[in-house]
């Protein structure tokens, strides 16, 4: 008996309306734009900045831009990509380091659609282009950081072994020179140093790949071998790659590309990104914290500056007010030993704070230090590396300057280990620092050496060709079904059109990225949807040949074909899930579209087409034949 519950009609109607709603934003094109945001907490984004941006663009002869203040950013909408590039080139040097001018593509989706959470489907770099970054690792800084770690480990090992020494400092040639006191056991010192170096991650303590330890009287010279230098450089680029991957995941970019290029560069491609300025800040940020013991108060630091006589093992730092303070050169805990960081409010003072969790090694050192230094002061240094660009003889010269300031130098009131909190930041700084620390610490500073928007022309051509291929597949399929299955062919056409609408809506709703391989997955899902409808139509024909009445044949055809359709699509669905789980890049783009297409095709073939068939033939009591 041909029957279809009314609640299923209601379900189909809801699905059609929701699919149309969430697919509609894809009809609206994105505007090329330049997004101006502040780099420093002290910078102000207001109407005065809007007027400043407008005057800069007028002086540069960039016309046609619509400038508006939207929240914490100034948005300059431009007519094309060429004008967008000219505007960014004019704004960056004029605005200076306080502001960031980043390329962007801004959706033009109407506000009423956005109020429902509807947004356009993201397109991959091969379809719409996107943001392309190239970053270079400062390998010299990575080397200096590792050698400083060796020097710290050596000093700690000698103290623990009760071996007297007068110095253990990094030399300009990136070696460590240890000077022992008179009468110190040189062999014991050499053994302690070798053991300490093995504990900080060298290849081997005394082997061919590790540091070379040379003894010259009371002096011990620790040199890095060529193999160790290469390993440090490789470790730095790989650690930075992993950290940046975590930071990209924090942004929420679909199908990013992160590849190593050469010995010290990383290529980052972010398709379909809405906020490139935030991405640039988060990816390139090198702000971190350093914990150092306070070795002299403000008056002692001022006296040391006046006499130009800084005590050995100490260094002058300045706080937020510019007041000097003496801190130990020995780094107690660094940013790469931070496990987690969360912004919060100090329950006692009500001031912004960052709750910090260290790893086991850092927590143990903090515990050991606080056990011996209750009542003494602990300094927390905020370190930020700011990339700078200057033009020399018509060419850009990129460099960076490091800003260090003491954000806290409070007295240690009690013993603590891996869990504690730090204050001294504004609420905005606390939130930004927690986000950066949680994403991970870079092994070495990195600079942006290239930034642009990829292939709008090529992307438009790929979109055109991909759309044309899918449309041809649709048209050929619709014509064939209309001629071969007649009325049921038209029913199949309705199901296929709704399937396409649902795929676009689902991908838009969940923020999936459509790539060129995704078009192939979409075409494949169309073919699989066709296959399901062929099974149904041929089954109905078989039931008619067996002598069943038309209404019974339709019902029986759908019932008997449904099991086969579910089984065949389940195997394809498992293959799509495997492609997504184990594939990368283009394979994932193909798998996402294919999996969504399979799920929607089962619904449209089994439920929607049956509902339409019942709507056409279900009310005819004396039905003698059907057009199939």
UniProtKB/TrEMBL annotation:
NCBIfam families in alphabetical order: 2A0604s01 (TIGR00916), secD (TIGR01129)
Membrane spanning stretches: 469-485, 490-510, 589-617
Record-annotated SecD export protein N-terminal TM domain positions: 3-103
Gene3D superfamilies: 3.30.1360.200, 3.30.70.3400, Multidrug efflux transporter AcrB transmembrane domain (1.20.1640.10)
Domain annotation Protein translocase subunit SecDF P1: ranges: 237-295
Domain SecDF P1 head subdomain: 316-444
The Protein export membrane protein SecD/SecF C-terminal domain, residue ranges: 448-615
Membrane topology: Multi-pass membrane protein
Name the record gives this protein: Protein translocase subunit SecD
Pfam family, one: SecD_SecF_C
Organism name: Luteimonas kalidii
Coarse class of the protein's main subcellular location: membrane
InterPro entries associated with the record: SecD, SecD-TM, SecD/SecF_arch_bac, SecD/SecF_CS, SecD_1st, SecD_SecF_C, SecD_SecF_C_bact, SecDF_P1_head
SUBUNIT field: Forms a complex with SecF. Part of the essential Sec protein translocation apparatus which comprises SecA, SecYEG and auxiliary proteins SecDF-YajC and YidC.
Keywords, alphabetical: Cell membrane, Membrane, Protein transport, Translocation, Transmembrane, Transmembrane helix, Transport
Cellular localisation: Cell membrane
The protein's role, per its UniProt record: Part of the Sec protein translocase complex. Interacts with the SecYEG preprotein conducting channel. SecDF uses the proton motive force (PMF) to complete protein translocation after the ATP-dependent function of SecA.
Keyword Secreted: no
Family per similarity comment: Belongs to the SecD/SecF family. SecD subfamily.
Domain of life: Bacteria
């Amino acid at each position: 008996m041909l029957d279809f519950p009314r609640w299923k009609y209601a379900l189909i109607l809801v699905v059609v309306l929701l699919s149309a709603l969430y697919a509609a934003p894809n009809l609206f094109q994105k505007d090329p734009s330049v997004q101006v945001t502040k780099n420093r907490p002290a910078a102000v984004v207001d109407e005065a900045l809007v007027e400043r941006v407008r005057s800069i663009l007028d002086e540069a002869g960039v016309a046609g831009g619509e400038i508006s203040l939207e929240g914490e950013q100034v948005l300059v909408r431009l007519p094309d990509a060429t004008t967008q590039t000219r505007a960014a080139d004019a704004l960056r040097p004029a605005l200076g380091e306080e502001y960031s001018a980043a390329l962007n593509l801004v959706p033009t989706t109407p506000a009423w659609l956005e109020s429902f959470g509807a947004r356009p489907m993201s397109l991959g770099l091969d379809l719409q282009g996107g943001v392309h970054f190239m970053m270079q690792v400062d390998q010299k800084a990575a080397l200096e950081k590792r050698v400083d770690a060796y020097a710290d480990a050596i000093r700690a090992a000698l103290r623990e072994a009760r071996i007297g020494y007068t110095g253990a400092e990094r030399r300009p040639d990136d070696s460590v020179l240890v000077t022992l006191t008179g009468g110190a056991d040189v062999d014991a010192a050499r053994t302690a140093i070798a053991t300490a170096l093995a504990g900080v991650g060298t290849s081997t303590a005394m082997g061919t790949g590790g540091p070379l330890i040379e003894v010259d009287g009371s002096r011990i010279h620790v040199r890095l071998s060529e193999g160790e230098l290469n390993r440090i450089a490789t470790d730095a680029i790989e650690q930075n790659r992993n950290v940046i991957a975590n930071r990209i995941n924090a942004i929420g970019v679909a199908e990013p590309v992160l590849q190593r290029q050469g010995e010290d560069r990383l290529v980052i491609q972010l398709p379909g990104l809405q906020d490139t300025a935030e991405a640039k800040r988060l990816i390139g940020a090198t702000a971190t914290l350093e914990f150092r013991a306070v070795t002299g108060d403000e008056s002692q630091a001022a006296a040391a500056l006046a006499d130009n006589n800084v005590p050995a093992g100490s260094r002058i730092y300045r706080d937020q007010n510019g007041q000097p303070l003496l801190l130990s050169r020995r780094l107690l805990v660094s940013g790469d030993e931070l496990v987690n960081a969360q912004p919060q409010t100090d329950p006692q003072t009500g001031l912004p704070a960052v709750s910090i969790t260290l790893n086991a090694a850092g927590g143990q050192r903090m515990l050991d230090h606080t056990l011996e230094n209750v009542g003494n002061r602990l300094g927390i240094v905020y370190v930020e590396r700011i990339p700078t660009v200057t033009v020399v003889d018509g060419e850009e010269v990129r460099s960076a300057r490091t800003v260090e300031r003491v954000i806290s130098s409070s007295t240690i009131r009690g013993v603590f280990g891996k869990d504690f909190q730090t204050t001294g930041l504004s609420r905005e700084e606390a939130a930004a620092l927690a986000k950066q620390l949680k994403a991970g610490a870079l092994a070495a500073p990195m600079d942006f050496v290239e930034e642009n928007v990829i292939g709008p022309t090529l992307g438009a051509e790929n979109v055109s060709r991909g759309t044309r291929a899918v449309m041809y597949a649709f048209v050929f399929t619709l014509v064939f079904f209309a001629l071969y299955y007649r009325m049921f062919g038209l029913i199949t056409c309705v199901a296929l059109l709704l399937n396409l609408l649902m795929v676009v809506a689902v991908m838009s709703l969940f923020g999936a990225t459509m790539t060129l391989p995704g078009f192939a997955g979409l075409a494949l899902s169309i073919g699989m949807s066709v296959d399901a409808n062929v099974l149904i139509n041929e089954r109905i024909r078989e039931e008619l040949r067996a002598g069943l009445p038309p209404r019974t044949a339709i019902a029986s055809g759908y019932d008997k074909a449904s099991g086969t359709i579910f089984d065949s699509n389940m195997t394809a669905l498992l293959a799509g899930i495997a492609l997504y789980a184990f594939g990368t890049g283009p394979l994932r783009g193909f798998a996402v579209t294919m999996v969504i297409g399979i799920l929607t095709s089962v619904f449209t073939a089994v439920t929607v087409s049956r509902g339409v068939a019942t709507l056409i033939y279900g009310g005819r009591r004396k039905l003698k034949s059907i057009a199939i």
